[in-house]
Amino acid sequence: MQVKFKLIAAACENMGIGINGDLPWRLRKEMEFFTKMTSTTKDINKKNVVLMGRRTWECIPKKFKPLANRINMVLSSQTLDLGEDAIPCKSIAEAVQEITQGSLKDKVEQVWVIGGSSIYKAAMESPYFHRLYLTRVKKSFDCDTFFPELPEGLVLVKDDDVPQGVQEEKNIQFEYEVYEKVLN
Question: Which intervals hold domain DHFR (predicted)?
């Protein structure tokens, strides 16, 4: 399997993605989109990986851990005991090795990077970065965590699995954008 990271995030007008270890907004349709994108596979015998940092893992409410129907992988420089809930990895390279040569070999269809900020940045700087699925929340929210600056060499693309146009829920407008890394 050739690993291609797909990043998925929602950011408000100032590129904020979180506040106090939580989401700054509650958009049911956007959360359903996240779940559908990160869970759906074409091959029923495979699952998708959701790759996240330790703080993102810790911010997931206990009743939702591990994220269902996905292989949860947690990046951390610390030694973590996640039991059966998730696979700890010290680096992106270690995660990729686990997916391609380790216990997950032939079991993974897609790899979704789900945060936080430093994990998004590292993933975008890695040779595995392929696409960014970014929900643009068209409102300002108070945030203490932000999506990193988008790298050069991204182009907007269309994905048939992504709703087109402006969506609205709870008087908050948002729009899904898909960026792809242009190969050099």
Answer: 4-181
